Amino acid sequence: MPGVRVSEHFGLVIQKSALAKRNISLTLLLQRMEAEQPLDEDEALVSFGPHFGGEAAQEFTRRLETLGLKYGEDFIDFTDILPEWCQVYICLAPARE
Question: Where are the domains of the chain?
Fold first, then answer.
């Protein structure tokens, strides 16, 4: 299945190109996200979660912004809580001309 899996509880998806542009290593990102590994990743995106509750999601959003990442441009949050029978995947859109 193309793309990266999004957490069913307050997930974050980050563009790898934004990390590279700001010289943010995966090691540093994992430290800031308090994770041993991402939830999912592909060549273009990396996904983290679950983050239980809006306050936790806001804290991780703040941490990403502290690294210089911009919400909406470099990363997004997915705050809908999904039922167990549902999985959502996000992929990088093709470049627009």
Answer: 4-90
Q: The whole model's pTM is what?
A: 0.89
- The CATH class, in words, for 4-90 is alpha beta
Exposure of 5 in the CB half-sphere (CA atoms within 13 A): 12
Cα dihedral: 48, 52, 53, 57 (round 10): -20
Please say if the pLDDT value at position 16 is more than 60: yes
Cα(26)–Cα(37) distance, rounded to whole angstroms? 9
- The angle formed by the CA atoms of residues 15, 18 and 19, to the nearest 5 degrees, is 95
Q: Tell me the CA distances in angstroms from 70 to 10, 15, 84, 89, one per residue in order.
A: 18, 11, 30, 21
* Other beta carbons within 10 Å of 87: 11
